[in-house]
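Lab notebook, entry 309. We have the chain sequence and a SMILES string for zinc ion, and the next step in the workflow is to get a structural model of the bound complex before anyone spends time on docking refinements. Request logged below.

Task: model protein plus zinc ion, output structure tokens.
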Amino acid sequence: MGSRIGLRRPSGPCGKVSCRQAFRSNHQTPVYRVSVILLAVFLAALSGSAKTLSAAETIIYVQVLVDDEEVANSSVWQQRLQERVDAASDIISQYSSVRFKVRSFGKWHSDNRIRDLNRSLREFEQEVTPKPGQIAIGFSSQYQFKRGLNTLGGTRGPLHSHVLLRESSPKTFEPEKLEALVHELGHFLGAAHSADPNSAMRPVIGDGKARSANFKIGFDPINTKIMRMVSSEVTYFKVRRYANLSDRTKERLLVEYERLAKQLPSDPAAKKFIEFIKKSKPPSENSKPPASLYFPPQDDPFKLPKKKN
Ligand SMILES: [Zn+2]
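Result returned:
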């Protein structure tokens, strides 16, 4: 999924997440607990715009990285990006049951010869592990911008472990960089491109809108529904791979992606997501899951404490 100054183009799907569950009370019977969970998922899926679900949240821990082209010193870039991730997380949490928290900072060495975001993303995936976070978000200052449309950011699709953004974008200011991050995190939660001119999922961002005082970065109703469905499964059913979403959710997502694809017939994002879902089968115990949809296994450092009897 790419964000562009101008146009965004998806490049393929998926990543690592461990989470914190909020259903902790010891006095719920199993039956009651299941019915509460089902009700919460049902409400989440029903709701199109405002956040109604605050019962449980999943924290996704992030390792934030810059490449060796970053000119600011550590304390400066770390504060800048910490604030940006916090702001993006605040926005995302209004539309889903997921929050992002910075767990650590790092640096990677980017190849000066690479000039396109797709190759850069591949390099980033090879060189960087999200640990000790669950996803890695890289901010690269490597690129030289061309005239016209430029790719601002990219990830391979929902629940993917790596997200890459361009940090040194000329004429792109902090609010637009924030919106680009929100856009990519939207893709992480299954959002595809929308024709809604005010949605963070419009295909062309970095258009100056985010800088206007009256503009609020947010999502269109269809993508809100999608993110709500995906994040509910992440939170309540601990789904860590897009392929492992429930059949019911996949069916409902297909309906929403078809609606988005109709809105933007020439944009590949929703079509790509439809393809992911149609191809996705939960991997069997012994089979290797498809790389594009794989959410790599990881020690979950935030497991619920064992119940005391
Ligand atoms: Zn995109």
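Notes for the group: The chain has a mean pLDDT of 77. Worth checking against the assay data. The domain at 2-281 is CATH 3.40.390.10 (Collagenase (Catalytic Domain)).
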